Structures are given as C-alpha cells and as structure tokens.
Amino acid sequence: MLVAAGVLPHPPVLVPGVAGQRAADLDGMRANCDLAVTRLFDSDPDLVVVLGGDDRTACHGSDVTGTLAPYGLDKTFGDGSARLPLSLTIGRWLLESHIDRAAREFRSVAWNATPTECLRLGERIADRAARVALLVLGDGSACRTERSPGFLDPDAVTYDDHVAEALRCGDTTALAALRPKTAERLLVGGRPAWQVLAGAASERSPIGELLDYSAPYGVGYFVATWLFDSAFPRSGRPEREQAETLAE
C-alpha cells in the first residue's frame, strides 16, 4: 500500500557541485526537496521506490550506481552493477543521508509509456510491500520562455500550472488524463512518472502539499508531497483530522 509520495525535479544543477557558482539559485528548492524526502521516511515505509523517466521501463533493484560525470562533476553514488539514468541518479543523491533507513529499489519508466501502462505499473508498485513510499522524479515543460531548452510554446505555462494544481490537490484523475503527445510537444519530462504515481494512489485520497513550483532556467520544477491516513507511524498514528493539518 502506498503510504507517502514525494514529487521532485531532476536537473543536474540540483546538485551544488554541478551548479558551481550558481548553486545558491536553488538553495530554497533543495531545502524543500530535503523536506519532501524526510516526510517519506517519517511515514515509516517498508520499501522506498525511486521512480524516474528513461528510454525504457525497468527495475534496477538496489544494487545500483549513479554518476554525475557527464555533467562535469566527478561524483558517483552507490557501487552496484546497474548504471542509473539521470532521473534516478538525482534520486539516489537525494537519498544519500537516508540510504539505510528502509529497503529501496530504483525503477525507470519509458518516456513513451502509455497512460494505461503507467497506471498499471503504479498499481503493481503500490502492492510491493505493506508500506510503500514513492519518490517520483520528473520535470515540467522545457518550453516556457524564449531562453528555455525547447524555446517558447504558449501552452507550456498553462500545462505546468495544471500539473502544479493537481499535485497540490492530490488529484490522481488530472494526472492520469495527461496526454502523451502534448507532453512530448512541450518537452515535459515528468509525464510518465506522474502517471505511475496516479496509478499507485488510485482510489485513494492523498493529502497534497505543493512545497515549490518555479522555473529558474525556463523549465518547470515541482516539489510536492502526498500523504495518506496510513502515512503515519504504526504506533501513535493520529486521526485524519490531525493529519490534514500537515497540508495547511
């Protein structure tokens, strides 16, 4: 059962050593990412699943390695045999200070996976353990301004605003309805991962909180958390009314 989820961006510049002199630009976002990851582990999970986009859908287990060498930083995380894509490498970096707190696995979902495939994968992930926490890595549109990697598309900001509202409200229906062709046109990196989240949380009522939504480099970045009644520790779990105060 899914007990908590965190949605985070995965630009290499999130790592201070990659950002260099501009590292301070994302200090606030890093703090919110740390808060989102902490909330995952506060939910007392049996299994943390790190999910992000890649060329293919795969389960990498926990024996993994992620490197930032292609982005100018001689830094490696883990010592496993499986090489992680960028999205999961950033996820592995975010887990660095929590790495021994729960079992973990790393899963990639193909950029071109259909919504149905994503939703079904999410359902399977939610059944992986009694208490599953999902760390979802995905960026918004890279077409927000004339200086964006994909130049300017007038629909980009509206699209990202729609995603931000869905994350804030815990709206699984809105995420499940995202169209792959629109996401592809707007260079949206997070669409398949967000739809896996929607599948994992299907028929549930998450308490959502949008911690960060910005586009410092012309790409939409989101930091959000979803918590459920079952997100609280096995002992001393508060009632729903108390849980809702977390979203205020």
Automatic annotation (TrEMBL):
It comes from the Bacteria. Gene3D superfamilies: LigB-like (3.40.830.10). This is Catalytic LigB subunit of aromatic ring-opening dioxygenase. It comes from Actinopolyspora righensis.
